[in-house]
Design a protein that fits this description.
Blueprint: H1 21-46, E1 50-61, H2 62-68, E2 74-81, E3 86-91, H3 93-103, H4 120-138, E4 146-153, E5 167-177, E6 180-189, H5 190-202, H6 208-226, E7 233-235, H7 243-247, E8 265-269, E9 272-282, E10 285-291, H8 295-298
Domain Flagellar motor switch protein FliN-like C-terminal: 227-290
Protein name: Flagellar motor switch protein FliM
Family: Belongs to the FliM family.
Length: 299
Amino acid sequence: MARRSAGPQPYDFRRPIKLSREHVRMLQIAFETYARSCGTLLTTRLRAVSQLSLVSIEQVTYDEYLGQVGNPTLMSVVSLDPLPGSMLMEMPLTTALGSIDHMLGGPGGEQAERQLTDVELPLMKDLLKKMLDELRYSFEQVVEINPKVTTIEYNPQFLRTLSPGDAVVVATLEVKIGEIETLSTICLPFTTILPVLQADNAEGELSAAEQAARDLSRRNLTFGMASAPIEVAVRFTPITMRANDIVNLSVGDVVPLSHPASVPLAVTVNDTTFAHAVPGNQGSRLACLVVPPPKESLA
């Protein structure tokens, strides 16, 4: 039986680069770990049975993502130090307000959609901080990050952290708190997460021959660097002179140096001192003898 040809595949010019299967799997493991740990956290903090589960991971444009989320909603801009760019953590307002109601001893449940008050906002930020701690722990196997909330917005259209056509990776999570079920999203800039995934997966993709070639190149580079000629200078302590004094110098003038006679000279490479020495000679050639650094340098 002849195998059917796969035929032409559609190509989206807005997303010329796509996540590989291995990269999606890495993100899936990280977000599933986050969902489990965050579900336990919410159950403990809210004193209500809570559960998070990963629904999907997809690559879309930033404009498409903003069109998918609700309005109004609780949108947190999160820095990912030391990574560049910002992550967006979106939570429906009914979930946020229900969580605050649980924290204050209430029954939770459906809430009218409105902005958080000045009393509720610190409570929500503290909960988000705990949730981001779980996210940091979940991503430790991929990359070490220190996520922090920088801004909270209720209208996603006011957030322009990226250009409309920029690619993003969106993880959709189903959130159950008590009897309430909603969908929450986490949006990562494609240019931020892709280099991390590629670097983490690079070593595992090398074959035995490729690894051997890399080791040989590393040894050759080490040998080449060790045998490369480097200009070394032995110097007195520099002095400062006025331009007029330098112009008027003539044969026979004496220029006093500030270098004490009992202090060794500096041995330098590219203005960096790496040893000390005293001057001398070896036969008919000038030479220097490397000595311990002066006591002032050791202090």
